[in-house]
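ugh ok fine here u go
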Amino acid sequence: MRIKCERVEQLTIFLENQPGILADLCAHLADRKLDIRAISTIDNRDTGSVRLVVDNPQVARATFAEAGLACSTCDCLAFEMPNTPGGFAAIARKLALGGVNIDYIYASAVPGPGPALGIFGVTDVERALSFDWGS
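structure:
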């Protein structure tokens, strides 16, 4: 199974948990022609955190700053793999055997032959990147 692994910059912002707030955020990114590769939201009654991976994080950071939104960043791993049973298991096993813990994942795949994409927050990005992901 061929797995592609790359470092990505994840952006995290906190928003009010109200109708339209996330839509406005996504519209700001669209106005700048930014492509959202992955998105995850976690809510806490009145606020929520939004994790994003976009095609140009520098422009996204500037966009958030212009909108008055505080943004934090961290490196994560983006895994592209065949959309077949066992893809995520193979990644999780290799990380575990290499002593790298998975803190969180957000992932998706469209049914069919296309690839799956997973964003992994891990304890040691550098170490995980050193693994052979070709099999």
